[in-house]
Design brief:
alpha+beta, EC 2.3.1.16, EC 2.3.1.9, 388 residues, two-stranded antiparallel sheet, 10-stranded mixed β-sheet, globular, Thiolase-like, Peroxisomal Thiolase, Chain A, domain 1, acetyl-CoA C-acetyltransferase activity
Length: 388
Amino acid sequence: MPEAVIVDAARTAVGRRGGALRDVHPVDLGAHVLRGLVERNGIDPALIEDVVFGCVTQVGEQSSNVGRWAALAAGFPETVAGTTVDRACGSSQQALTFAVASVIAGHSDIVIAGGVESMTRVPMGSQRNNGPGKAFGPSIAERYGCEGFSQGEGAEMVAERWNLTRTQLDELALESHARALAATEAGVLSEQILPISGLTKEGESQDFRRDEGIRPGGTLEKLGTLPTVFKEDGVVTAGNSSQISDGASALLVMTPERARDLGLTPIARVHTAALAATDPVIMLTAPIPATEKALKKSGLSAADIGIFEVNEAFASVPLAWMQEFGVGADRVNPNGGAIAYGHPLGASGARIMTDLIHHMRATDTQYGLQTMCEAGGQANATILELIR
């Protein structure tokens, strides 16, 4: 059976809203990871047949097919195609699925999958303000009895359904920051981060190579002082939710034969990919059936998976997921998650996949699984297999 392998994966450091990447146009942000990925693998960019990029807020500077413009801004030949995908928070994870499918089908030999989001320059939700009507339409409003959906309210519903406490959410948030800080200080992330020119708080140029969202020195007492955001007597706060961020990420996908011809050593293959969709009101529960589908399709069990990445859009999401699968916290998000790093929407899927791939190689872990909740009540789940 034809295969697709991942040869390399890289990303920018993630910038906080209004932070180091505030002056970088999202097209140039995406171009940076494309150029860096090709250069460090010594590939002629003319060999790239397509760039599949995730981006959620496709308006303004991120409109008009940011994937194509990022490829051109990277200096790739005009013969390199590009397209842009929106599956909400899972956009760049979906981009990888599309890239792998194209290679397996024989449509392409080399594809770059990735994503970009500058939430500083293109605010979240701004695409919904372009026009006189509401984004969801009257039929959706009639079906669900509402005129919109709130991920934050969904996170509160998840916490209530799985009987999760404020303390549990805050403890996971603290652990996310602690793990991310430990990985950073140990140099674990250095191989995956492509330094980029950014700005300091004072507006001076800096070599930006360290994720900005990681907060040292947090305590349960400090987190406990934060007000809840979506429900007066709720449990979801800014401290146990993902951060609004800027960043880009990309993965180099090709056939094993092409990798051999180019003298490149593959890291992993996509073993199984699955999708799930559930109630868009609670919205954030789909990683559970997506994981179930991926495991069933793969013939593997949760016990076979060495590392899980469950996106920390809100702390209640991975906590509910762990309850359902009986997986200990030691195997979930080992280097921390989006609560610490941030969640640049269109880039997050590939950012997390990049971390997963490098962690699997560093720890010689055979199987890893990534899943993400997505607006609209959907989720992707992807199982990677390490190539030894």
